[in-house]
Amino acid sequence: MTTASSPSFAAEQRDALLVAAREAAGRAYAPYSKFHVGAALLMADGSVVTGANVENASYGLSLCAETVAVSAILSSGEFLRNGGKLEAVAVTGGAPGAAGQGDIVTPCGRCRQVLNEIAQIGGTDPLVWCDGPDGVLEMRLSELLPHAFGPANLL
Hints:
Helices cover 32% and strands 22% of the residues. It starts with 10 loop residues before the first helix and ends in an 11-residue tail after the last helix. By secondary structure, it is an alpha+beta fold. It has helices at 11-25, 65-76, 78-81, 109-122, 141-144; strands at residues 36-43, 48-52, 86-94, 127-132, 135-140. The chain has one domain (11-146): Cytidine Deaminase, domain 2. A five-stranded mixed sheet has the order 2-1-3-4-5.
């Protein structure tokens, strides 16, 4: 995957994005799994868009936090207005009120693909931060989804 270089971030920026993801997890609608997930997307212009998982009694219709956040930024028009540059993603999950206190939660395969779509459009390889009680797991999206299929494959 050919991408533009992504900037490095200060610990304060990472921590602020993780806080936004934890706050989003607090707004999750997860009456079935009782597992709240929050995601926060940092765009190149400094804007942050969050999402929380939304479950449905027909489980296949449930939405992951990352997908909700991507849908929000795409449907608002902000993605194109700010140049479409996804720089970083924070994800957290866990029991209600305890996001980030259990095992580290990474984006699921579907969410990795959804994030890859907007990363490829903007030519970025965003950092992904996933928190847990023992610290923060940090990696590039390309490490989470190597050899990704995306918009460039359809041209």
